[in-house]
Amino acid sequence: MFNFDYVGKRKYFFILSTVLLLIGLVALIVRGGLNLDIQFRGGTQIEIEMENGDFDVIKAENIAKEAIGKSGIHVQKSYTFNPTNSDEAISFLVIKSSGKLTDDERNKVLDALKAEFNVKENGEMRVRDVDPSIGAELLTKGLLAVALSLILLILYIGIRFNIMSGLLAGFTAVVAVLHDVLMMVAVYAVFNIPVNESFIAAVLTILGYSVNDTIVIYDRIRENSRISRKDSIRTIVNNSITQSMSRTINTSVTTLISVITVYAFAAYNGIGSMKEFTFPLIIGLICGTYSSIFIASPLWELLKEKQAKRKASQAAKA
């Protein structure tokens, strides 16, 4: 069995995470916050049915920007199945504007795109205006969902892992999950990726996945604590992580391969909605695996040792 002092080397992992998060913080400050999509800051979304999916979204985006003289325009592809023929896919060109477009601006964009691309004659066109207040409400509800999930995680782990000073184990697990979420935010800030409802969905998905990896290691720590009572906490944690390593890596790699395959398919075919969901999943899966191994358990050991020293000091004074 390969032995590695995860606990002894924890400061390097903590420093690495801190540096990466600081880079994200700097990016947030420089960019003035996250690049919120229209779902959260309001705007206009136009979906135009195309003859086929063979069109350049970058070219379409530049044409749309030039047509109305605005820079806050984002274009992507979208597909849906034909309800009358399940073997046929209907292609849409999706335009997202960070500000509401007037009827005149919409017509200019549509005319410019018709001049360059095969817009389907008498095809479907959907226009949706999103009010900023509705976007703010969506964002607030998403954040509340994340907060509620974290509270429930602390309570669940606190009850299940009572032998590990339950609430302490719950706290360190939530710190690891927050680490993953903040890493995802940092990546979005650095690369200025639009944040939409897919990001919130991905965050909630990663919450469950990340804490599951952490619980697997915690479960091993709990069992080893009962079996190896003479071993130090550091030894138990190191052994538990090592024993869980193959399972954690195998599960994460298998899941990553699947998600990366979906992302590659979406990127190749220009399916923006699928890319928007799978990209944060990839980041979250990598960070979740890292935090489960190098953050949660080593941090728990650190706090547990401090707790034991504090109790010993109080007992000595008494």
From TrEMBL:
<feature type="transmembrane region" description="Helical">
    <location>
        <begin position="199"/>
        <end position="218"/>
    </location>
</feature>
<comment type="function">
    <text>Part of the Sec protein translocase complex. Interacts with the SecYEG preprotein conducting channel. SecDF uses the proton motive force (PMF) to complete protein translocation after the ATP-dependent function of SecA.</text>
</comment>
<dbReference type="GO" id="GO:0015450">
    <property type="term" value="F:protein-transporting ATPase activity"/>
</dbReference>
<dbReference type="InterPro" id="IPR022813">
    <property type="entry name" value="SecD/SecF_arch_bac"/>
</dbReference>
<feature type="transmembrane region" description="Helical">
    <location>
        <begin position="138"/>
        <end position="159"/>
    </location>
</feature>
<feature type="transmembrane region" description="Helical">
    <location>
        <begin position="253"/>
        <end position="271"/>
    </location>
</feature>
<dbReference type="GO" id="GO:0005886">
    <property type="term" value="C:plasma membrane"/>
</dbReference>
<feature type="transmembrane region" description="Helical">
    <location>
        <begin position="12"/>
        <end position="30"/>
    </location>
</feature>
<dbReference type="InterPro" id="IPR022645">
    <property type="entry name" value="SecD/SecF_bac"/>
</dbReference>
<keyword id="KW-0653">Protein transport</keyword>
<comment type="subunit">
    <text>Forms a complex with SecD. Part of the essential Sec protein translocation apparatus which comprises SecA, SecYEG and auxiliary proteins SecDF. Other proteins may also be involved.</text>
</comment>
<keyword id="KW-1003">Cell membrane</keyword>
<dbReference type="InterPro" id="IPR005665">
    <property type="entry name" value="SecF_bac"/>
</dbReference>
<keyword id="KW-1133">Transmembrane helix</keyword>
<dbReference type="InterPro" id="IPR048634">
    <property type="entry name" value="SecD_SecF_C"/>
</dbReference>
<keyword id="KW-0811">Translocation</keyword>
<comment type="similarity">
    <text>Belongs to the SecD/SecF family. SecF subfamily.</text>
</comment>
<dbReference type="Pfam" id="PF02355">
    <property type="entry name" value="SecD_SecF_C"/>
</dbReference>
<protein>
    <recommendedName>
        <fullName>Protein-export membrane protein SecF</fullName>
    </recommendedName>
</protein>
<dbReference type="GO" id="GO:0043952">
    <property type="term" value="P:protein transport by the Sec complex"/>
</dbReference>
<feature type="transmembrane region" description="Helical">
    <location>
        <begin position="166"/>
        <end position="193"/>
    </location>
</feature>
<keyword id="KW-0813">Transport</keyword>
<dbReference type="InterPro" id="IPR055344">
    <property type="entry name" value="SecD_SecF_C_bact"/>
</dbReference>
<keyword id="KW-0812">Transmembrane</keyword>
<dbReference type="GO" id="GO:0006605">
    <property type="term" value="P:protein targeting"/>
</dbReference>
<keyword id="KW-0472">Membrane</keyword>
<feature type="transmembrane region" description="Helical">
    <location>
        <begin position="277"/>
        <end position="300"/>
    </location>
</feature>
<dbReference type="GO" id="GO:0065002">
    <property type="term" value="P:intracellular protein transmembrane transport"/>
</dbReference>
<feature type="domain" description="Protein export membrane protein SecD/SecF C-terminal">
    <location>
        <begin position="121"/>
        <end position="305"/>
    </location>
</feature>
